[in-house]
Amino acid sequence: MEIGVYTFGDLGPNPHTGETISASQRLKEVIELAKIADDAGLDIFGVGEHHRLDYTISSPAVVLSAIAQATKRIKLTSATSVLSTLDPVRLFEDFATLDQISEGRAEIIAGRGAFVESFPLFGYELNDYDALFEEKVNLLQQLNREEIVTWQGQFRSSLSSAMIAPRPVQEEIPIWIGVGGTPESAVRAGRLGTGMALAILGGDPIRFKPLVDLYRQAGREAGHSPEKLSVGVTGHTYIANDSQQAKDEFYPYYSNYWSYVNRQRGMGTRMSRSDFEHMASPETALFVGSPQQIIEKILKQYELYGHQRFVAQLDIGGQPFSTVVKGLELLATEVAPVIRRETSK
After folding, report:
1. Confidence class for position 222, pLDDT limits 50, 70, 90
2. pTM exceeds 0.90
3. Which end of the chain is more exposed for a tag (fewer CB within 10 A), N or C?
4. What is the domain extent for residue 52?
5. What one-character DSSP code corresponds to residue 10?
6. Longest dimension (CA), the chain
């Protein structure tokens, strides 16, 4: 199994000090985190796209290009690119350029986005939410396959023998579809033959198994080989030396994280310690605990899903950079070797 980390570059205040670092400092930390992940032998590093003042990354390809210069081998992916409001030609050419700069390490996770601020920003209608994504993901796949493209659709100007340049170093850039929990998204990923990046933020892992089954069934029915149908699991993660320490340290950051995310969505709810204890219990999908507990959670999900990739979001809630680095090092040195060994049997 491939093991990696991803970040949204969110600008949350430190709940202990009330201080929020600058966007410039946050971006420097993101690049440094990627370098540490690369040096530690992790397999993939991802950055997400948001268009808000409380996030620092609106252009994953630009940030990943900077990371490409600071790293040697780690794969570089968006996590995700909001394809519904992007021009697929521009997105593909940006990531083909990244693929050239990184010598063949670029990937794309395409999604519809958990936030909707990009729709008015780029002149799209929310009523077209699903139709936009369907049209654009099909065009993105065609751009990936063909150097000269002729295409016609509803939302974008037509292409007539258009040269799509540069071409990537890889034969094709790996494309994944981000799935948050809707069966329709899982079926679409299978039908199109892309990878499926499954965001699991909590709850009982068994409730996500039907999505994996739907994805693989749709892929088989569309004629895609099982080897092409890759599943990745992404989720919030905090690792400390023992499980009680992990929960005690993470609760202030996790409660803080959901406080500002819920405010962004127009909700004022706050997470209690008892709610957090339930979310972080051994039988749930939230990856909080000792290295051994994280290993057990990943392997339990592997039994359910048979997935090929696990990617952790470590840096949420206003944590200081040193805390995030400690978690990454535990993931790389204590968790990843066991997961790789057990899943290669």
Report:
1. very high
2. yes
3. C
4. 2-343
5. B
6. 61
